[in-house]
Amino acid sequence: xxxxxxxxxxxxxxxxxxxxxxxxxxxxxxxxxxxxxxxxxxxxxxxxxxxxxxxxxxxxxxxxxxxxxxxxxxxxxxxxxxxxxxxxxxxxxxxxxxxxxxxxxxxxxxxxxxxxxxxxxxxxxxxxxxxxxxxxxxxxxxxxxxxxxxxxxxxxxxxxxxxxxxxxxxxxxxxxxxxxxxxxxxxxxxxxxxxxxxxxxxxxxxxxxxxxxxxxxxxxxxxxxxxxxxxxxxxxxxxxxxxxxxxxxxxxxxxxxx
Length: 258
Hints:
Elements: E1 2-6, H1 10-19, E2 24-29, H2 33-43, E3 46-48, E4 60-63, H3 70-77, E5 85-88, H4 96-99, E6 105-110, E7 127-131, H5 134-145, E8 151-153, H6 156-186, H7 195-207, H8 210-213, H9 217-220, H10 223-235, H11 239-256
Parallel strand pairs: 1-2, 1-4, 2-3, 4-5, 5-6, 7-8
Antiparallel strand pairs: 6-7
Helix pairs in contact: 10-11
């Protein structure tokens, strides 16, 4: 396929790197020309910084920008690629943001956390596709199958539920690791001592029902330990962590008393 992309951030970087060996990357369009040039050079594409420069002789245009920018971008580009299939990569944005402006619209959403300095295993990364037209849906499904073994045709409501769940499973859990590090750093304790616990917890969550794997003082209803922990956080002037600790403890207590 002949593919161009709007955006030069983390999602664009990872997508183009995995698509490049099998597909022809034509252009990278971004407001920051320097970033566009760097990404384009890595995949042998042309860097552009205005929509008027878009090449209409492509099969697919991927919009890989922030959720709040998708509606603006589609309005900027449709006049220059009127016959091209255009997709966004967002888990939380409804396909109608595109279909209201363009008949050949779809979604190509990889459920993964992306960092510029870390590779991801694309073959195991779930990709969710949606399209307004059945032929375009087959095209996106074939494209997804070329890079992943886990491809699903989900609608916008299903995709949004996954995105919300991902915030809990990834973003919130990572912040819990951040809070854990703050606690041990305050006492000059090595955070890496928690690595085996973190990995075992993640492994259990993927192999059994998370509810059944819950452990800890809140699960046991151990009020003495919970109060001791809360006092420690208060004495350490970590009121924000104390508030999170108490809220999560109450949630676990309530969930396991049902």
